[in-house]
Amino acid sequence: MASENNRYSKTNLLQENDYNYTLQDVEEANLFEDMFDYDQVPKITFNHRTVPMHFPDEIWITDTTFRDGQQARIPFSVKEVVDLYKLLHKLSGPKGIIRQSEFFVYTEKDRKALEECMALGYEFPEITTWIRANKKDFALAKDMGIRETGILVSCSDYHIFNKMGMTRGQALDKYLGVVKDALNMGIVPRCHFEDITRADFYGFVVPFARELMKLREESGIPIKIRMCDTLGYGVTYPGASLPRSVQGIVYGLRFYANVPSTLLEWHGHNDFYKVVCNAATAWLYGASSVNCSMLGIGERTGNCPIEAMAIEYVQLKGTQDGMDLRAITEIADYFETELKYDINPRTPFVGRNFNSTRAGIHADGLLKDEQIYNIFNTGKILGRPVTVVIGEHSGLAGIAHWVNAHFKLEGVQKIDKKSELVQKIKAEVDRQYAEGRTTSFGDNELEMIIRDADYMKYAALCAHVADIGETVKADD
Ligand SMILES: CC(C)C(=O)C(=O)O
């Protein structure tokens, strides 16, 4: 099994093992109240068991923008789905790093969006569905030419006992029946193990996964397991105990239920600020796939942002593998301009301020060497050059950087912080703050200050500022 022996793995973990965990069909729900006392903030407990890292040879990202993402906002129009799907395709690149995207098929509109995306004929992201677990919906998916579909198999006792009113044995039988229906129709079932981070891992999750792997062997159909951290309880601390340990869950499914990495997918939520780290940990410990949404939209605090995992992919693999990361900026622009979605300015990689600085001392560094205060060449990689926001503390260096970046001045054209123009702008900025201004300066305002200064003296600026003069006059 050469593919399992790579630089991150300590042992070959996928061999048959002697731990035959069977279903514990308990009479009373196990709600792990030691960790999840509802009247208290949940606790992270430790059993000090650590598990080996195992980075799969191939990792990828799947998308849930049109399913979990859409559940948490006003539904997208058909055009919006198609536009965003095209951007996902662009981000994915020819190797299919964004491998799949899941769609609803409930309404006419859902089906039209799916059909229009399919008609584009892209190999990646492959379109999959999410359906109600009944034969009619399987048939619908099949008729539409769908190969794989997600089905809900909630696995904590919160769901089995308290929501569905069943025993674990009844739930298991029901789920296996649905999976068999899908297999009989030739559809690949993707089993969404809802609430896995509050489930009895050895008493339900592993025995159920073992049954699924038996069906996989009998049918030859690659049944997938999506590990859903529904309320974001997953943690990555070494030695944290199950069911909250992300690496423990991934390792346990691989080792005790013999689920191969290629059939394991992590789906997280951000309730405790851990969504990105949890997804990366799932990769590192043996899940080939992580499920994400654009800008992390999704239930409550959202899902794992696809842009974060695209960047994390490059950090872990050392290559973009054909992904066009500029699509990240286009996705953000689309959300802001077309969907009127407010992106928190501090959001990494997409927020207005993610690579901008206000502090004069940072701007001074940027002026000397951009690398000092920018995380990477964001201009080249994301199409987002580093920027300086002019505020009370920007100083001469900040203003000089703003002028150079805003007017794209290069080489000898660049303006120095000691230049007379920079001093004039600074004087005006200082005057306004002295008079009680509290907000930062917008680009238009700064352009007007430059127009009012005697810009003709600054050869490098003449061409640009003359244009500004025209625009500003037209706007006046
Ligand atoms: C509905 C389920 C599958 C889900 O998306 C989740 O658990 O987060």
The largest sheet, given as strand count, sense and whether it forms a barrel, is: 8 strands, parallel, barrel
- Which ligands occur here? 3-methyl-2-oxobutanoic acid
| Biggest sheet: strand arrangement | 1-2-3-4-5-6-7-8
Helix content: 40-55%
Give me the Rg, rounded: 27 Å
Class by SSE composition: alpha/beta
Number of helices: 17
Cα separation of the termini? 71 Å
**What is the mean pLDDT?**
90
Report the strand count.
10
Which H/E pattern describes the elements? EHHEHEHEHHEHEHEHEHHEHHEHHHH
Keywords: Transferase
Protein name: 2-isopropylmalate synthase
Organism: Christensenella tenuis
Domain Pyruvate carboxyltransferase: 59-329
Fold and architecture overview:
This protein has 476 residues and is an alpha/beta fold. 42% of the residues lie in helices and 10% in strands. The chain is built from 17 helices and ten strands. The strands form two sheets. The chain has an eight-stranded parallel β-barrel, surrounded by seven helices. The radius of gyration is 27 Å and the shape is elongated. Mean pLDDT is 90; it is low at 1-15 and 469-476. It comes from Christensenella tenuis.
Keywords:
single chain, 476 residues, alpha/beta, 8-stranded parallel beta barrel, two-stranded parallel sheet, 17 helices, 10 strands, elongated, disordered N terminus, disordered C terminus, binds 3-methyl-2-oxobutanoic acid
